Each structure stands twice: as structure tokens, then as C-alpha cells.
Amino acid sequence: MTALADRPHMQLSEFEELARLAARTAEGLSLEFIDGRLGIKAVPDGDHDEIVMWLQHLCMQHRPELGLYAERGLVIRAYREGRARPDGTLAPRGSFSGQPEWADPEPVLMAVEVTSYDRDTDRRDRQEKPQAYAATGIPVYLLIDRDTCEVTVFSKPDGDHYDQAVTVRFGTPVEIPAPVGLKLDTEPLKDWVN
């Protein structure tokens, strides 16, 4: 007998229909479905957007063959099927051409999340997403945490979690390992914290 807590709150098909409806009617909300649970991402603030743009610019400068796609819907193959919209998805340019709303994550080199000032950030960005992205096999997860003023680079997924996590304070350079191969000067992040 399976405990009620072990069951998904809704079926994947129900989530996809709800997400389509929300996209048409609920301005500023984005839905995700991770580990059988419905998640709602609020509209990002301007500083959040600036961080994503800053990272896009750096990626274009240092890895022009890659694109940092904002809010790209991904199929997340975790314990239960899921759907996520990372703040940034780094992949070779053209990887999502012809893909549906929820794309195959196979070409993804890095998922990026920038924390928002909402009550679900801890559970969503610091707990569930590292596990879900690692289980999906995404090589790197970059968490830019505005609450703690830290950047964490998760790497070496083993199927359940990331074997390596390097955390630095804003202002400290950090290496993003292969297959990304990028060094970030995190000093500018200090300008985008409330």
C-alpha cells in the first residue's frame, strides 16, 4: 500500500492542461511540476532580469556557440515525470528548434536559477531543483542565491544528486566546470540584491 504522501498531487496530463490555461489567463505566473508537485513561479523583478541578462552576455562573449535560453520549458526526468522552466538553460544554439513547449533536456549543459523573494524559494531552488536536475543528467546547475548573496555551482550528477557543490560569496570568482568551462566574476551580483 502506497502512502498518500508518496503519490503525485496530480497527473502529468492534468498539469500540462493547467499550465496551458495559466499561460493564457494568469499574467506573470509560470507553473512547474517537479516530483509530482505543482509549483508556481512569480514574475521576476527587475534585478532578477538583470542577472539573467548579465549571464547571457557573459555566455555570448566566452561561448558564442551556446545560447542561454530564458524560461525554456524542460522535461525533467526525476523520480516522477516533471516539467520545469529554469531561469536560464545553456545549450548549443539551435538545440530547441522544432521542440514543443516542454523540450527534451538532452542538449542542456547548464540550468540556471536566480532566487526570488518568495516563500517557496528554499524548497524549490535549493532542495528540489538540484535533485531533479541531477536526476535528469544536466551536467551543471548554477544557483544565484540573492537571499544569502552566494553562488553555488553544482556539478558531476550521479543520477540522484550532484557529487560536487562549490559555494562562494558574491564578489568571489567561481569556475563553472566542463562542459561549460567559464569563469564568473561574481562582483556585479552585489548590485542586484535588495
Question: Care to describe what's here?
Answer:
- Residues 1-5 have low confidence and may be disordered.
- The chain has one domain (4-192): tt1808, chain A, CATH 3.90.1570.10.
- Helix content is 24%, strand content 31%.
- The strands form four sheets. The protein has a six-stranded mixed sheet with strand order 3-6-7-8-9-10, sandwiched between helices.
- It is globular and about 45 Å long.
- The protein has 194 residues and is α+β, with helices and mostly antiparallel strands.
Question: What's the arrangement of strands in the largest beta sheet?
Answer: 3-6-7-8-9-10
User: Could you spell the SSE succession in H and E letters?
Assistant: HEEHEEEEEHEEEEE
CATH class designation:
Alpha Beta
| Discrete helix count | 3
Mean pLDDT: 83
CATH superfamily: tt1808, chain A
CATH architecture annotation name: Alpha-Beta Complex
C-alpha termini separation = 48 Å
The helix content is: 10-25%
* Radius of gyration computed on alpha carbons: 16 Å
User: How is the CATH topology named?
Assistant: tt1808, chain A
Instruction: Kindly state the number of beta strands.
Output: 12
Low-confidence stretches: 1-5
Structural category is alpha+beta
Number of domains: 1
Report the major sheet. 6 strands, mixed
Strand content: 25-35%
The rough form would be described as globular
